[in-house]
Amino acid sequence: MAMLRASHLPKAIGIIHCRSHQTDSSVISRGNNRADRAARAAALRGPDLPHPPQGVHTLQPTSSQPPPNMRQILSYLHQLFHPNSKALSLFVKAHLKPTSEDLNFLKTITASCKTCQMSNPNSKYRNSPFPTHQARGSLPGTDWQLDFTHMPTVRRVKYLLVLVDTFSGWVEAFPTTNKKAQTVSNILLREIIPRFGIPASLQSDNGPEFTSQISQTLSKALNIPWHFHIPYHPQSSGKVERTNRSLKTVLVKMSQELHLDWVKLLPLALFRLRALPKQPLFISPFELMYGRPALTPGLSPKPSPLPDRLLTPLLHHLRSLLWEFADHSLPRPCATPCTSPINIGDQVLLSPPDQSPSPLSPKWKGPFKVILVTPTAAKLEGLPHWIHLSHLKPFTSPPETHPSYTVSTTGPCSLRFQRTLKSSTLPPISEE
């Protein structure tokens, strides 16, 4: 039979490249179109399943009993794919009949796999809960955190050296054209030390501008301990990193309103950060630094606070109560069906997940109209792809305005109609 089938095979086969989906009547086009139709028919045809006597169509016979070499199969599957134990257990449950002992064995081999332990980003080790994990000065100007942040280039200036007093939260920022150790030393000698005195300590990351010989020679000459944070752990520089974010947010808002570059707006932005109160004391860095609030014309002076000897025990007691009840205030899982926080027709803003905007450019685009929603994503009008809800936030439309008219007499036989805009949603302003 093999010789008979071989005798009907073609003696030679030629493979050529031809254009697909052609409408001419050439031999090549007709043959290619015939091959396309045959391939389409084969793809649309379902698989030929066996018909057991019970009438159940299965791809392969199944057994209600687990195979005897189940643990060998589990080890082989884990070595083949290296998935987590939950995903592999779901896969095994769908095709085999593992017992509870087999599932425990699966967790064991997953937890002991060297490849998985060296590759998975998660870890069971967690830092112990401390009231604070950052060093803090005991008086204003005694301890500073330093950091360079990148900014849009304005007249060769493209860096910003930010310093934060860890006791009061007072912020100092200096635009620079480079991020060298000589620049850091000059700012410390000409700006920080003459105004605030020699600090008791300095904190920074392990950048070369801070670890270089110039910076360290200055710190040793002035007897200033310079503490370096753990590499690749920005939480250690949390105060200055959070200040960088707040400062850039203020500059973005001010640049949109005043249409000036960030170098000119920097003094006003610094004053805003210094004058506003902060938690947990609800006292501004300005007041902690100078002993009084920032002067604001038109506002009544703030009454003198209670002495620190009366407030300090209360603050310690309140902080201990907060830590005690923090674990009990966590939200519990909700048993209600999952619903989307947005509805069809809502206006939302989009943070593009595939773009990295400039540090001072707006982070959101839009608004866009929602045309389809799921519990985790939304389809926006004018965009071809679905957007995850984590990249969206609601957009509040401005109040609608409707024209109204006022009538006044300008003569014995003439009237004057003057058009005004009246908001339909804002309440009327009453004059006392």
TrEMBL record:
Molecular function terms from GO: nucleic acid binding; RNA-directed DNA polymerase activity; RNA-DNA hybrid ribonuclease activity
Source taxon at top rank: Eukaryota
GO biological process, alphabetically ordered: DNA integration
Domain Integrase catalytic residues, every copy: 136-293
Database matches in InterPro entries: Integrase_cat-core (IPR001584), MLVIN_C (IPR040643), RNaseH-like_sf (IPR012337), RNaseH_domain (IPR002156), RNaseH_sf (IPR036397)
Location of region: Disordered: 45-67
SUPFAM superfamilies xref list: Ribonuclease H-like
Pfam families: MLVIN_C, rve
PANTHER family named among the record's database cross-references: ENDOGENOUS RETROVIRUS GROUP K MEMBER POL PROTEIN, RIBONUCLEASE H
Protein name in the entry: Protein NYNRIN-like
Organism: Cricetulus griseus (Chinese hamster)
